Fold this sequence. Notes:
Blueprint: H1 2-15, H2 19-24, E1 27-35, H3 49-61, E2 66-75, H4 86-98, E3 103-106, H5 112-122, E4 125-128, H6 129-140, H7 144-158, H8 191-221, E5 226-231, H9 237-245, E6 262-267, E7 273-278, H10 288-293, H11 299-303, E8 306-312, H12 318-331, E9 341-346, H13 353-365, H14 378-381, E10 384-385, H15 394-406, E11 410-416, H16 421-430, E12 432-438, E13 444-450, H17 455-461, E14 466-469
Parallel strand pairs: 1-2, 1-3, 3-4, 5-7, 5-8, 8-9, 9-10
Antiparallel strand pairs: 6-7, 11-13, 11-14, 12-13
Amino acid sequence: MTDLISSGEARLKAMAAPEGEIAAATHTLVVGPYLTRPAGGAPAPTRSAQARIEEAVGLAAAIELDVVEAIPVTLPRIRPSTYLGKGRVEEIAGIVRAREIGLVVMDCALSPVQQRNLEKEWGAKVIDRTGLILEIFGRRASTREGTLQVEHAHLAYQKSRLVRSWTHLERQRGGFGFLGGPGETQIEADRRMIQERMTRIERDLDAVTRTRGLHRQSRARVPYPIVALVGYTNAGKSTLFNALTKAQVVAQDMLFATLDPTARATKLPHGETVILSDTVGFISDLPTSLIAAFRATLEDVIEADILLHVRDVSHVDTEAQAEDVGTVLRELGIEDAQDRVIEVWNKADLLDADERTRLLNLSRKGGGQGSGTQRNDRDSAAPVLVSALTGEGLPALTSRIEARIARSRSTFAVVLPPEDGAALNWLYENAEVLDRRMEEGGTLHLAVRVAPEKEPRFLNRFGAARRLTRAE
């Protein structure tokens, strides 16, 4: 019995070995096989091959892989058996042997047959872009819902990829991922067991979704506007979230530093309370399975009153990234997002003086930078240039949020006698006090903005209030 306990403790210690140590010891080659002419009449890519391979290297770095070389490869067409042509396969095989590569990351979507054939040709583990993103999500998920969603997407991906060749890294553990070997449900390589596990996860996710629904109903009883941050991964959403809410959400210069959604209540300058929601970053060629899996996580985005589209305007591919964000929003079923989007041009601190001046002038004129957003009017649709890191432009951003919220709210003029402190307190608690002037005798003249759901109570209490503007 003692021997069994000791053996079990040793196995648990092995299971607890940091994945970062495995990744750091794995020499990785990143290959970017990019078609010179997209198949099926698809639109030509807006990014250069170099920019795309740099993003793939960034994805590998997000899980601490030791990338020793990155090779962009232009392809006239895709080969069904190995994706790459025979000559390229042989060339990369030589690099794998010479550099002692243990893992090859292909920045594309491979079929199971292509993946297995390349592993045989190169004698190394091969994963595609989908597998890499799944591994990153698996590392980042911290809530029960996020973990379940990632595992479900991973199992669906693995159903056709049950043969694993990296046996020297396999170890029994409860999670999943190519670095740690197959998870507990995959050791038997049994499709039926995987399906059973997926069914259980779906039931658990249904329960979690119901709980989130109850939370939303509870929040609806105290109806605050929802302001959701969306944007390409590493655009600075979490840094902006922290700056606006004084929270301490993880913010790193790393792709997919944020996965699980975070929401905080915060007050705007005129006293309006909003729910600010930080969400997972989007990325080009995001696997369809992950879009479906994380739909529940992105419910705050779908239901948001305002979307802050955070863009890294210092990035060379900022316009292409903006188009990718728009694509994902459409895939989430958010077709009417344009009238509730505020573009936030972030990382102004990384711009040189000339570029900063150019973008500031563009934002004041109400457009530019090719986001594809249909603009209804110049002021409300103009982008806001900010630096979430230094705080530059944040007052202008909060003013823009207030202005957007104001579209759906009426404003009133209220006159209060000096002794009616209770009424004044009610206005500060339930409305936005935009202006306050006191006459010589102490009489107060206020301009207030009232949410539609609170307007009946307001009018019942302040029947003599004079309407200044009507909600749209």
